[in-house]
Every structure is written in C-alpha cells, then in structure tokens.
Amino acid sequence: MTADTIAYLGSPGTYSYQAAATMFPEAEHVGLRTFGEIMESVEAGAHKTAVIPIENSTSGRIPDVHRLMLSTEMAITSEHMQRVEHCLVQAHSGPRPVTELSAITRIYSHRQGFLQCSGFIEAHCRDAEQIETVDTADAVRVIVGMEDPGVAAIGSSVAAQVFGGVVVERDIADQKNNYTRFLALEKPALDPDYAGCDITTLIFQIDHQPGSLIEALAVFRDAGINITTLETYTISEETALPTFYIDIGGGLEDAAVQEALGALEAKARYVKLLGSYVASDVRNANSGFLPVKSINP
C-alpha cells in the first residue's frame, strides 16, 4: 500500500466508506477491520489518512474511538457529517423476502445499527435474535449469502446494491435526521495551517476537587467561545483523574482561542490538542450537531 491511501472501517457499502469517498473522492480507499488497525496503520505510515466515526446524532459517542483519542499522536484535519439511512435488507433468494416483519427470526448488523434502530426493532421484530457483525455492510453480505427469508440485516441501500440484497424497509432509524460525525486524522504537519479553521478539539484533565470543572470551562465563557461537545472519560489506567473531550467554536489562529487555551493550561493538570479544522456546514438543529456560532432564540 502507498502512503496516499485513506483507511476506513469495513468494506465498500459501509457508511464509513461513503464518508471516506465523500471526503477524499480522488483517493484510494482501503477498508480495515478495526478502529485500532486504522489508527495504527496511519501512525506507521502505511496510509496517509484515517477516516473514523466519532459520534452519532442518535446513539451518541463511539466509545472505542474515544478511547483511542487518549493515546493517538495524530491530528484531526477535517470533519464530515454523513447522513445515515438505515434499511432493512434481505436476500433475493427464496420465493421472495418475507412481508411479515414479525416472521424475521435473526437480524444482523453492527452494534450502532441496532442502537440507532432499536425503536423499529421493538415495534416490528422484537423477538428476532440480534447478531453483531464488524460493520453494516458485512451484515448485508452475510445475509445475502444465507438465502434465508427469515433473516435480515440493518445496513445501507448502497450495501444492498453492492452485495445484491433487497431493501424491504427504508429509513428505519429512530431519528429520521440521523447523522454520524466522521473525523479525518493524519500525522501532524510540521507547520500546520490553521487559516479558516473554526472548530478546535482537545482533551484535558483536572484535579478531582469540587468546582474544578466549572473553573476550567469558565475560561471559554470568559473568552466568548461556544462549547459544542463535552464528553467525560470514565476512570481507567489512562485517566486517573477526571478527563474530558471537548470541541470549541474557534480556530487556533483566533486570539480568543489562544487566550482561553492559555488560561486552561493554568487550571488543568493536562491538556492535549487533537486538532483545529473547518467545521462541517451540516452542523445545524436538523443534523443533531451544534453549529460553532451561537444560536439566537
């Protein structure tokens, strides 16, 4: 493989593939089996860029990716909001796909597919066994090969086209405006250009004392900076003290951001900058992700 390839999770037909192809349409895209493998391959120089999902507007953060953010030395260079339209897919074979959804005995999908479609499953296929796969496209591939009318997958219409499945029900996610936020990560540039950047991501750690978090977050209020994401890490070997992932509205070239980060350094035990980049123009109320600028009521 060359260092100009883009690494993503899974195979053609996954939402990760669709995001990678949208973000880097001219590049070669290489599907890998785990988030760890993706990050390691880019850190080792086997691929140029990692495209990974960080959170979904319905099911929230992707825990495996958040854990990797603690240790990665790569920098976030861009973000993309991928519209997710989960479909219930069956195989062509057999007399025809079942028409009674309650007759489906097994459903295959990625963990996120089940989480994001839990309401549909409860309403129509509550007794079906849920079997996890490495990604939604693999779920479609598996059930198409089974040729069993009692088996279905939750995946994309693109995966159904790739593997020859039949879309039985479209847009079955509990939240109809369902988006997954993807990040592109690369080895840090020696002289990064932050011109035009309007969102910055970092991890910080504070003392476990009353008021420590409020004091840390107050530096952004005092600098007039919005917080668009704030996530807590659970205590582990990597996080002996309260640790937080945060997205703020503003680029590293902004004086207000520099002021706020300087003030945070004085209040935090540890600050790790993950990247400064251009915010997606899909950030709005309908996508489930906050814009970087204030919303007027």
TrEMBL record:
State the coiled-coil residue ranges: none
Annotated EC:
4.2.1.51
Which reactions fall under this protein's catalytic activity? prephenate + H(+) = 3-phenylpyruvate + CO2 + H2O
Q: Name one Pfam family in it.
A: PDT
Q: Where are the transmembrane segments?
A: none
Q: Name one GO molecular function term.
A: prephenate dehydratase activity
Q: Which UniProt keywords apply?
A: Amino-acid biosynthesis, Aromatic amino acid biosynthesis, Lyase, Phenylalanine biosynthesis
Which domain of life does the UniProt lineage start with? Answer: Bacteria
Q: In this protein, which residues make up the domain named Prephenate dehydratase?
A: 5-187
Gene3D superfamilies found in the cross-reference section: 3.30.70.260, Periplasmic binding protein-like II (3.40.190.10)
Which InterPro entries does the UniProt entry name for this protein?
A: ACT-like_dom_sf (IPR045865), ACT_dom (IPR002912), Chor_mutase/pphenate_deHydtase (IPR008242), Preph_deHydtase (IPR001086)
Task: Please indicate if the UniProt record lists Cytoplasm as a keyword.
Answer: no
The entry's protein name is prephenate dehydratase
Give the matching PANTHER family. Answer: PREPHENATE DEHYDRATASE P PROTEIN, PREPHENATE DEHYDRATASE-RELATED
Name the pathway: Amino-acid biosynthesis; L-phenylalanine biosynthesis; phenylpyruvate from prephenate: step 1/1
The family database entries (PROSITE patterns) matched by this protein are listed as: ACT, PREPHENATE_DEHYDR_3
Q: The ACT domain covers which part of the protein?
A: 201-278
**What is the organism of origin for this protein?**
Parasphingopyxis marina
